[in-house]
Design goal:
This protein has about 450 residues and is an alpha+beta fold. The protein folds into 2 domains: about 220 residues, Roll (Pnp Oxidase, Chain A), CATH 2.30.110.10; about 130 residues, UbiD C-terminal domain-like (3-Layer(aba) Sandwich), CATH 3.40.1670.10. About 25% of the residues lie in helices and about 30% in strands. The strands form 6 sheets. Strands 8, 9, 10, 11, 12, 13, 14, 17 and 20 form a 9-stranded antiparallel beta sheet that branches. It has a 5-stranded mixed beta sheet with strand order 22-23-24-26-25, sandwiched between helices. Strands 1-3-6-21 form a 4-stranded mixed beta sheet. Helix 4 crosses helix 7, helix 4 packs across helix 8 and helix 8 packs across helix 9. The radius of gyration is 23 Å and the shape is globular. The structure holds manganese (II) ion (MN).
Length: about 450
């Protein structure tokens, strides 16, 4: 199969498999769209063809839940579920330079409008206490003002006016760029890309180093250079196959209130003064599709999980080479709980694996290590391993007062305890028979249909 290279191709593919449901009923962008999407979470992707906000109706279709299972992510990458992390790591280590094409061949230039109005886009309010309408699936492209190397990242963007967005910038690459620009009292030019395929969404979440163009990772995942096209009003290149591009700049010395916003841990991120984007232009396809990611759904969580898992797997393997796989579980909001399976050869390895995982990111709070016979993507199996292969006094340890995640409400403004749980079988007991799993001969071969 050749890789999907636009969100349209992706919709076609999942429609064929009856995963995409089209909804023609009129749906309110205030909460209703989010509520329907949430009900379908993990079951269906949705396309809303008729939406409204107050008395304004929209004909631009809204899509959500595009890739909300691990199976779908594997399908988008065209690899088996087992190979997803390995493949993502490979792409990170072997980027391909994207290619700039002429704008006459770029569908995203079919409409160019220098007089944009954000209220013409079907932008929803997702959660009850959200501060307003939010763009949640916009990939922001910017360049390092010092090196001109591109960076892409997704940020929550609150609509403040018809050409103005409030933006949350966590202290990563974009934060650094804006800091440089703002100190020179210069705007930081940006473009926001809406409506892209799963590969580009995943690549945008890669934990790449500074001055590493994530479009190069996407290109490797496509097996060919991603096609970019120059923006109209800013010195930024954007994906030619996208649905909608917003062009503008983050203004120096300007802060306005943004938030609250229902975030991935299923609590609200606070309202506070944030930087502001002023938009100058919109370009789009002649019949664009608008993508929204409903916060805290599987689409949101898994998009962040895959690149993080790939990163943790790499780091833990450096310490414990016989590490098999890593899962950031959905119960742990795909950020706080790392479950690691190892093919244990030496006593003590689980603790080293725990140290490596905890040090990989401030977000990791609890790490559970299990033997390779446990399916780490199955929460019931993981709990079973903790229930039957762990004694708290020797297998659990706690590190108090490390740096955690501020969005975890149980942390003290980000200061958080860390916990490691070794739920592996002691090597001395390995062959004693104590841990022999019960087995029914023939169970695996049986197909229920033959008996019903
Ligand atoms: Mn980056």
């Amino acid at each position: 199969m050749s890789k999907v290279k636009s969100v349209r191709q992706w919709l076609e593919l999942i429609k064929k498999e009856n995963y995409l449901i089209e909804i023609n009923k009129k749906v309110n962008l205030r909460y209703e769209l989010s509520a329907v999407g949430k009900k379908a979470d993990g079951k269906y992707a949705l396309q809303f063809n008729n939406t409204f906000f107050d008395d304004k109706e929209f004909k631009i279709p809204v899509i959500t839940n595009l890739l909300n299972t691990r199976q779908l992510i594997a399908k988008a990458l065209d690899v088996s579920i087992e190979d997803v992390l390995k493949y993502f790591s490979y792409a990170q280590l072997n980027p391909i330079e994207p290619r700039i094409i002429d704008k006459k061949n770029a569908p995203v230039k079919e409409i160019i409008n220098l007089n944009l109005n954000l209220y013409d886009l079907p932008i929803p309010i997702h959660h009850e206490k959200d501060g307003g309408r939010y763009i949640t699936a916009g990939i922001l492209v910017a360049k390092n003002p010092r090196t001109q190397v591109r960076n892409i990242s997704i940020h929550r963007l609150q609509v403040l006016d018809k050409n103005k967005l409030g933006i949350l910038i966590l202290p990563r690459h974009l934060f650094h760029f804006f800091d440089i620009a703002e100190k020179e009292n210069k705007p930081l030019e940006i473009a926001i890309v809406i409506g892209v395929d799963p590969i580009l969404l995943l690549a945008s979440q890669a934990l790449a180093p500074l001055d590493f163009d994530e479009f190069g990772i996407a290109s490797r995942l496509y097996d060919e250079p991603l096609e970019l096209v120059k923006a109209e009003t800013v010195d930024i290149e954007v994906p030619s196959q996208a649905e909608i591009i917003l062009e503008g700049a983050i203004l120096p010395g300007v802060r306005e209130f943004e938030g609250p916003f229902g975030e991935y841990p299923k609590y609200y991120g606070p309202r506070s003064l944030k930087p502001v984007i002023e938009l100058k232009a919109i370009t789009m396809r002649s019949n664009p599709i608008y993508h929204t990611i409903i916060p805290a759904t599987k689409e949101h969580l898994l998009l962040g999980a895959i690149p993080r898992e790939a990163n943790i797997l790499q780091l833990v393997k450096n310490s414990v080479p016989n590490t098999v796989s890593v899962c950031l579980s959905e119960g742990g909001v795909c950020r706080y709980h790392a479950i690691i399976s190892i093919d244990k050869k030496n006593e003590g390895e689980p603790k080293n694996a725990i140290f490596a995982a905890l040090s990989s990111s401030h977000e990791i709070k609890h790490v559970i290590v299990v033997d390779k016979d446990v399916d780490i993507f199955n929460a019931e199996e993981v709990e079973w391993a903790i229930a039957t292969r762990c004694q708290a006094s020797k297998d659990i340890f706690i590190v108090p007062n490390a740096l955690g995640n501020k969005l975890d409400p149980s942390s003290a403004n980000g200061i958080s305890d860390k916990m490691g749980i070794d739920a592996t079988i002691p090597l001395v007991d390995g062959n004693s028979g104590k841990y022999e799993k019960i087995k029914i001969p023939g169970e695996e071969e049986i197909s229920l249909e033959d008996y019903f």
